[in-house]
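Translate structure to sequence.
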């Protein structure tokens, strides 16, 4: 069951030489999408594809008339100010454009003379959200995260009985999702210490990040229809890095009975680049369910999901404090994990989300939930790393953190590596906490 094709060939090199270093996140095997414009300009945002340290301007490329048929149609749609229309076209169009770009950007391609003048340096670009995110749902698919957080909030009952049967999620808020570079004031709200009589109001004291993958739906489904587990690859457009900011003290007081609310909806940040599901094909891997655990119900079970349901995407988190910035120090990496540890797969999330007839629209996003790995050092949040705020972690300049302070910038990165294939990356997502208003 291989989704691998000529665009993944390790031997491919680009005439954009910065793509061929072996360390670039954006070799010719990646070709992720974003919306961009020249920084500080009044230009309209439009689709772009990363290659090395450059961006192919898809609107300019569409105007050149170089690509025809499906690739040409896809290119025209990707010229919009958002990628929604392109994402809604579906797998055949996505693949056609990827193949045409791969061939046109290869060493010795005839198209070099036409495309070279259309490149813009990433260093001179600014980004928007890649698409209008109509709806956003956040899952909770790391059993290590769910167990660690459950222990802190409910010591006697960490993992609720539905966890191993249902891919747990809640409907999040898309209005406050911003692109990398986002800044936001520390949220305020109600908190209540366990021994206090009544809640108090004020700035959050336990502000945290969550290390997640964001998954964009491309082609949607009609209301009342569902997407079968083995059909989800026709609907999943691509992946980004996603920081789901969380106010832990607000969360602990408000989350029962209906789940997260103001603890989550003040800000969430995505990386600008969307790595396509097709680009990730080589890094897919087996998914297993421990024999001692309940096996999935039929609609969440298939051979394909067992064979290639998981994605080995390495993700890490770094914190850059105000002091580090003043002293010119680089950010301190605090943890690293992989999406392959997820208890539920992307296919299972999509199949479950639609099994009741709920409709996805192009550009809808799902969050994977905090991706903590099995080891303590692989935790995807400070809540876990600091064991509920009881043990401060030490950053590489000696500063300590239990939770985030004003001025802290959180930076997340992601990449895939596998023998016989190129290393591809997601770039990064960063955002900075401002003092409470
Ligand atoms: Ca989350």
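Result:
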């Amino acid at each position: 069951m291989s989704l691998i094709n000529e665009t993944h060939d390790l031997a491919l090199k680009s005439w954009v030489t910065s793509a061929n270093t072996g360390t670039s996140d954006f070799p010719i095997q990646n070709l992720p999408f974003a919306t961009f414009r020249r920084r500080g300009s009044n230009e309209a945002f439009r689709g772009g594809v990363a290659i090395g340290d450059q961006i192919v301007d898809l609107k300019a490329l569409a105007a050149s008339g170089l690509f025809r048929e499906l690739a040409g149609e896809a290119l025209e749609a990707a010229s919009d100010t958002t990628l929604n229309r392109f994402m809604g076209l579906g797998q055949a169009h996505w693949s056609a454009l990827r193949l045409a770009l791969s061939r046109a950007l290869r060493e010795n391609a005839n198209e070099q003379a036409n495309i070279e003048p259309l490149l813009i340096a990433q260093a001179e670009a600014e980004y928007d959200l890649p698409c209008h995110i109509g709806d956003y749902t956040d899952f909770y698919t790391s059993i290590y995260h769910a167990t660690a957080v459950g222990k802190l909030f409910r010591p006697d009952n960490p993992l609720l009985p539905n966890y191993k049967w249902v891919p747990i999620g809640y409907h999040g808020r898309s209005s406050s999702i911003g692109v990398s570079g986002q800044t936001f004031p520390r949220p305020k709200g109600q908190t209540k210490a366990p021994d206090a009589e009544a809640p108090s109001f004020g700035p959050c004291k336990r502000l945290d990040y969550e290390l997640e993958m964001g998954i964009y739906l491309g082609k949607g489904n009609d209301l009342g229809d569902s997407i079968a587990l083995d059909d989800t690859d026709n609907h999943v457009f691509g992946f980004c890095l996603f920081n789901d900011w969380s106010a832990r003290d607000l969360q602990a007081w408000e989350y029962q009975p209906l789940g997260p609310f103001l603890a989550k909806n003040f800000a969430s940040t995505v990386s600008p680049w969307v790595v396509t599901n097709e680009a990730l094909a080589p890094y897919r891997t087996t998914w297993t369910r421990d024999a001692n655990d309940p096996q999935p119900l039929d609609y969440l079970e298939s051979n394909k999901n067992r064979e290639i349901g998981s994605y080995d995407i390495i993700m890490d988190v770094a914190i850059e404090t105000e002091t580090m910035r003043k002293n010119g120090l680089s950010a301190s990496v605090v943890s690293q994990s992989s999406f392959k540890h997820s208890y539920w797969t992307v296919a299972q999330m999509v199949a479950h989300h639609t099994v009741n007839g709920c409709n996805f629209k192009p550009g809808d996003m799902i969050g994977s939930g905090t991706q903590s790995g099995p080891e303590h050092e692989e935790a995807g949040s400070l809540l876990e790393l600091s064991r509920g705020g009881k043990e401060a972690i030490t950053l590489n300049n000696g500063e300590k953190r239990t939770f985030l302070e004003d001025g802290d910038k959180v930076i997340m990165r992601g990449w895939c590596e596998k023998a016989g294939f190129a290393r591809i990356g997601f770039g990064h997502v960063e955002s900075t906490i401002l003092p409470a208003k």
